[in-house]
Amino acid sequence: MTESKYYAQRADEARGAAMRAKGMASFRAHMGMAHEYERRARGFEPRHADNVVLDD
């Protein structure tokens, strides 16, 4: 499996976890992870956790 496919798969899994989340904080955390995995799947450098925005 290529790195981009791995990150795309992880993004799908994180989105699924977000949809099953019981609360908004958990939903936002999983969606934040999904967005970061999508960035990595597209070849962008990882962002430092302090720079990840969970709320739009």
What does this 3D model show about the protein?
With 56 residues, the chain is mainly alpha-helical. It has one domain. Helices cover 64% and strands 0% of the residues. It has helices at 3-20, 24-41. It starts with a helix and ends in a 15-residue tail after the last helix. The model has no long low-confidence stretch (mean pLDDT 88).
Counted by DSSP, the helix tally is: 2
Oligomer: single chain
Percent of residues in helices = 55-70%
Average pLDDT works out at: 88
- Major pleated sheet: none
Could you tell me the number of beta strands? 0
- Give the radius of gyration: 11 Å
Number of domains: 1
The first-to-last residue Cα distance is 32 Å
Q: What is the N-to-C succession of helices and strands?
A: HH
Question: How would you summarize what this structure contains?
Answer:
This protein has 56 residues and is mainly alpha-helical. 64% of the residues lie in helices and 0% in strands. The radius of gyration is 11 Å and the shape is flat.
Give descriptors for this structure.
single chain, mainly alpha, 64% helix
Ordered list of secondary-structure elements with their pairings:
Elements: H1 3-20, H2 24-41
